[in-house]
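Researcher: Please predict.
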Amino acid sequence: MEALEACFAVRTLCRYNPAKDRGFLCKNRKIYFTDPFLYHALNEWIRGTVDIHATACAELTDPGLAERLIEAMVIEHAARLFNERVYYWQNRVEVDLAVKAPLGLVPIEVKFQDQIGRYDAKPLKQMGGGILVSRDAFLLLDGIPVLPAALFLAPLSR
């Protein structure tokens, strides 16, 4: 895993430790591909598929895979913007991403789905706020801003 991290193919997230204001080093880590192309290339290489583009397009009809790839892109962009001060949060609730910003910890949840409801914002509400990244919804849900993934990712490029 260290070799994949060293060549920037994957990013690992540590669970945030609020007592020490950093990640737990020994707890379970989450692993994400830094680029969807790398996921598809490795996946097709393992399967022995010749037409990567056709297979990738077919796989992206699976909403679960699309959500995981968007979640990985959100995490990678946030890590680049905030100089790697990104974690995941798991206490009473689990949040996909916790960014250590200058003004404090900002929880971010990715729900790349057609319908967004109050249930999707519940973990962020329990943490006192945050940002919910959706497929295309743009609204305020129980005080939680819901932003489309394209809009969320747009200002994160350097």
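Model: The chain has a mean pLDDT of 87.
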